[in-house]
Design brief:
The complex is a heterodimer of chains A (88) and B (188). Chain A is built from 3 helices and no strands. With 88 residues, chain A is mainly α. In chain B, 38% of the residues lie in helices and 26% in strands. Chain B has 4 helices and 7 strands; from the N terminus they run E-H-H-E-E-E-E-H-E-E-H. Chain B has helices at 20-46, 62-88, 129-134, 158-168, and strands at 12-16, 90-94, 97-105, 108-115, 119-125, 136-143, 150-156. Chain B has a 4-stranded antiparallel β-sheet with strand order 1-2-3-4. Chain B has a 3-stranded antiparallel β-sheet with strand order 5-6-7. Chain B is elongated and about 75 Å long. The chains are: A mainly alpha (88), B alpha+beta (188). The A-B interface holds A 10, 12, 14-15, 31, 34-35, 38, 41-42, 45-46, 48-49, 52-53, 56-58, 62, 66, 69-70, 73-74, 77-78, 80-87 and B 1-3, 56, 59-66, 68-70, 72-74, 76-78, 80-81, 83-84, 87-88, 103, 106-107, 109.
Chain lengths: 88, 188
């Protein structure tokens, strides 16, 4: 297996430069806050739904299957989102 | 079940949720939204003046892929929430009553019971070609007086459910003077 040195994750800035946002907001900060907001939304929504499943589903197998499916798909989407090649 | 206690001698006859096709109909907007970014990248190629925008839909690059992943995560999470609400909405028929469990949204749950002894009329409604083919319909359970009625929408095999309800409606013996005070029960 070909071993390559790890590259630090670089946030994309090209879009902001093209949209002339570079001088108004820091792209790094904007993307960071967007991702943090998304993570908080996902975590809260997931916790609330898990609470409802465990309290009201009355079927532990269905509840655990559904929660496991949600966590697996979310994990797959996150891996997909972070697996692109860096911008040139 | 914790939300309602069964009386001595009472047992659960049937538990029903909306038909899976009705649930899939609720998921359709999420499916369309999830496919949209992929379709958009292909559609932009067809219009010469928008070809330059395709760079923003090149999902092999980290910026567009991060945006797409974030979008898909939101769509998936809300779709899963829709499934959660679908699963938590149910109608339970016991040997003595109908229990309607409504999960409108998170932290908004209503559990109501209708004793079968108060049932006056049970109506089924199957409208449309697809509903007729797949046996999807509504059931309306009415009680005597001006009390609220129970409506079950989009359930599978509504006629079977109606028969089950009527099977467990207790027969009332007519009073001695011959004038029936009991509500009329329409049987199929």
């Amino acid at each position: 297996m070909l071993e390559q040195p790890l590259q630090p994750f670089a946030l994309p800035t090209g879009v902001f430069e093209k949209l002339s946002l570079a001088g108004i907001v820091s792209p790094t900060l904007l993307i960071q806050w967007t991702l943090i907001t998304l993570l908080v939304f996902w975590a809260l929504y997931t916790l609330i739904a898990i609470y409802h499943w465990l309290r009201y589903a009355h079927n532990l197998l269905a509840a655990i299957s559904s929660i496991a499916l949600h966590l697996f798909v979310s994990y797959a989407i996150v891996i997909f989102a972070l697996s692109a090649s860096p911008l040139p | 079940m914790k939300e309602f206690e069964l009386e001595p001698g009472e047992f659960v006859v049937h538990l029903v949720r909306k038909h899976w096709l009705v649930f899939f109909g609720e998921l359709l907007p999420f499916a369309i939204l999830a496919v949209l970014p992929f379709a958009l990248s292909k559609l932009l190629l067809l219009v010469p003046s928008t070809e330059q925008l395709t760079i923003y839909f090149d999902y092999s690059r980290e910026g567009p892929r991060l945006a797409l992943g974030s979008f898909l995560l939101v769509i998936w999470t809300i779709a899963w929430g829709t499934f959660t609400r679908y699963y938590l909405n149910a109608w339970v028929l016991t040997s003595q009553r109908i229990i309607n469990i409504k999960q409108r949204r998170f932290f908004s749950r209503e559990v109501s019971s209708l004793f079968l002894s108060r049932v006056q009329d049970v109506t089924t409604d199957i409208t449309g070609v697809l509903s007729s083919l797949l046996d999807i319909g509504d059931i309306k359970v009415q009680t005597a007086g001006e009390e609220e009625e129970f409506v079950m929408r989009g359930i599978p095999l509504p006629e079977r459910m109606r028969d089950l309800i009527l099977k467990y409606v207790p027969e009332e013996s007519p009073p001695a003077d011959g004038v029936s005070g009991a509500p009329h029960i329409s049987r199929p």
